[in-house]
Amino acid sequence: MEALLSSAIGILTACGVFLILRARTFSLVLGLTLLSYAVNLFLFASGRLQMGVPPLIRNGAAYTDPLPQALVLTAIVIGFGMTAYLVMLALRALAESGNDHVDVKEKL
Amino acid sequence: MEPVHLLIAIIIVAFAASPLPLLLQRCGRGYAALAAALVMAACLTVLAPLVAPVMGGTTLLASFAWLPDWGLALSFRLDGLSLMFSLLILGIGLLVTLYAYYYLPKHDTLGRFYTLLLLFMAAMLGVVLSENLLLLVVFWEITSLSSFLLISYKRESHESRLAARIAFAVTGGGGLALFAGVLLLGHIAGSFELTQVLAAGEHIRNHDLYAPMLILVLLGAFTKSAQFPFHFWLPQAMAAPTPVSAYLHSATMVKAGVFLLARLHPALAGSELWFWVVSGTGAITLVYAAYIAFYRYDFKGLLAYSTISHLGLITLLFGLDTRLSAVAGVFHIINHAIFKASLFMAAGIVDHECGTRDMRRVNGLFKFMPVTATLAIVAAGSMAGVPLLNGFLSKEMFFAETVGHPVFDEMRWLLPAFATLAGILAVGYSARFIHDVFFNGEPIDLPRQPHEPPRWMRAPVEVLVVLCLLVGIFPQWSIAPILHVAASAVLQQELPAFHLAVWHGFNAPFLMSLVALGGGITLYALRHPLYAFYERLPSVHASIVFERFHNGLAGFSAALVNRLDNASLQRYLALFFTFVLALGGWAWFSAPASPLPVVTQPADAASIVALLMLALAAAGVVVLHRQRLAAIVFASVIGLIVALTFVRFSAPDLALTQLAVEVVSIVLLLLALHYLPPASPAEDSMQRIMRDAALASAAGVGLGAAAYAMLTSPFETISNFYLAQSVPGGGGSNAVNVILVDFRGFDTLGEITVLAMVGLAAHALLDKLILQAPTHDADGRLWARERHPLFLQMLMRPLLPLALMVSVFIFLRGHNLPGGGFVAGLVTGVALILQYLASGIGFAAARLPQRLPLFLAAGLAAAAGIGALSWLFGFPFLTTAHGHITLPLIGEIELASALVFDLGVYLVVVSVVLMVLAELGKLSLYHEEKT
Q1: Domain residue spans in chain A?
Q2: d(Cα B21, Cα B33) in Å, to the nearest integer?
Q3: Cβ contact A66–B723 (<8 Å)
Q4: Looking at this predicted complex, what is its ipTM?
Q5: Can you give the C-alpha Rg of chain A in angstroms?
Q6: Confidence of residue A107 (pLDDT cuts 50, 70, 90)
Q7: Smallest Cβ distance to A10: which of B701, B762, B769?
Q8: Tens digit of pLDDT for each residue in B160-201?
Q9: Cα B546 from chain centroid?
Q10: Residue of A nearest to B716 (CA)
């Protein structure tokens, strides 16, 4: 199971980095989204993989680690905020320059 | 008041009162001048009660801890040397204040001038009164800074700005060297307090770091006191208004360097290195600058070089390193300050009245301004070392010290000959100043008709010239007491016997003086062939060299930046990832072998399928990333699988949040895609793609390996506190939510603040933005005419209250079960956005609150306010309280003050989602109106 999750993290990272290195804002946003997935999963995994033990306090049961979950929850929301900001920036750049290249000005 | 408090009060008064002229200038330029004079007088008044004890030989110390760990203390010291300097700074400061009032043009309101002058004066007092060496460096830098501002006082003049830059580069750079030297000195001596440092001279001189430390300290002193080869900034600095030259560049600031030599004399002097470096530098400066001074036809430039030469003389005296030479050095500091300040002021009067400083045109002024001329002639006589004037006495002491100096045993004639040569040159340039300006025929083509200056403009010169005479004729009565305590403070031991008198009998020094006088006058008589010879020499202008150097340096860095920074984000990111990989790889391979891996859990079929789907979807995004719509669909598949992963591994809160964020993000991306080009061009070269693929694979392998290593290493949670305290301390059984709103509520507050900024950015970035929306899709089909299908409208409207109820439910239960403000906010946001999508922005905007930023603010205020409320009860920020209430139908709920916090989170999230999406939506509204 651990190997599966690690592979997932690896695949998402690789795809995310590749897209981040592309020249168009939209690809950049997609790449950043994928990289966020990978990083969130990584953070989450630092609490280890435990099944059926959510951190909801009941009598005497075992619980998984709640701290990485709290961190990842904020990370997901902040990730959304960043995606939104980037998208707006991309639109603004498009309006100002007429193209969606990440360097704003079209390369010749 | 205690004397030590008075000592601190001087510095505080000086600094605190320095803005006064700036504040008072609106009342008139006279008030600005008066304020400056009163501040200086106040400092003198505070100093007055301290004079008697210091003249009695006491050293006053006052110390307050500042940064004790770093050895920095606000400690001050008043002994003979600092008293003498303080009197010079304040006394000449007062005279310059009066003089500047007349010198500067009438339309100048003077506020800026006097404030800068006071700031400089305060810093200079700080330098001479510091007991702590680090503190001294701080003040030293302030003198460089304020001097920069004073030299560039005529801001509109290029020459002034350039001169200020040169001066700052040289003295500021020297200041840095001094700082390094002082750090070393403190390290060697074990303390930055002067008392300890001065007592540790023996230890310091024998230390291994003595040589580098000495060189660094001397660099500071030599740059400040314009010693060769750092002298060139001083003649440039003559671009400053003449009062500034009189104050900074003759009496005070340039003396800071020689002050440092005197101050640190017991700690640093007494070695061969000191002798050769200090006396060598001083000697070269003395003769070289005197030689140049003789050829200057700008009389202010002549005075500037003469200042350099005299500073060289003082440096040489400290370098000769006999006890009597140090006394002579201190004496010459006083004398030079007096006669040179008066000369600068007199030169300023001539310049002011004639409109030029060129001695080839300014001639024969004696008959136009006889009083000023007489004053200037007396002061210049002192500069030349004419008997009965103060300059003669210290020069005589200098000559006496050169005769029979112990080091030059076999070449005992060398030093006196050198000194006499300097004396001849000094007489030569003094003669030139006197004869060219005041005699030598008629003035040639002057811009103005010269006449005597206003009565009070001349007064400071008169005061100083009277001092020249007093000291020169009655030295024992006038100057001996202060010289005695000052020199004792320099040497930190018994003074050698010396007697100040005009007539010491017909001895070697007197003979040297006679030779200098005769030689100097002969030299001046032979001036015409000498000038002709000098004119033929190639001329080097320091300012041009500096400017060239400066431009070269700036050009070099600009070229370097251009090479490294081609404004390509792709390149930066590639470099960034490469660097991260290198760093990560280095950490990975240099880490010690990990302990035995823990037993892993077996994979099941569902997980394998999920991974395969994820891999497929990720590959789909990459392969199809240029077909943007398809890429979004694949990306959403990944989001769903990630949410399922959270469900599987006991994180229901995360799964809920991920799902809700996924929906909002997809809507966002689709909206954006409406304006962005539907496809990316295929523009990457194969080479580029291979490079990026390699980088990406390496990053993927790296993070995957790191994740695997982490997952298979032994685990110890740090969260037991949270789990144990969730119910009793936080009043909720959902530990994740309790952490968010209670234990780590401060983080969450920061986070929603960031979100709120995104909401505001939406407004800032997108408001009134005009974007051309395409009329056709990627395949050339028209966009649907019916923008808001009836079916969708009918479905969505009844869904809204249901969705809102769900979000209230999720919100309320969040403290105990999966849910909470974040998820509820996202659900509400999605529900409202769906109304926009289904019925159009016009429909939704009419029914939704318009002032979303208000809700945003309310949310932040609720979260921060409930946190601040706990202060009222004496608890730290964000402490929570809780209790239970039972609601009909819903049952018992935990009512914690954290609920209000969570409400704040909810409001912020809803507002941000709506603001971002509504701003994007408004773009399409604009489009609708247009079509």
Answers
A1: 2-97
A2: 7
A3: yes
A4: 0.94
A5: 18
A6: very low
A7: B701
A8: 998 999 999 999 999 999 999 999 999 999 999 999 999 999
A9: 23
A10: A47
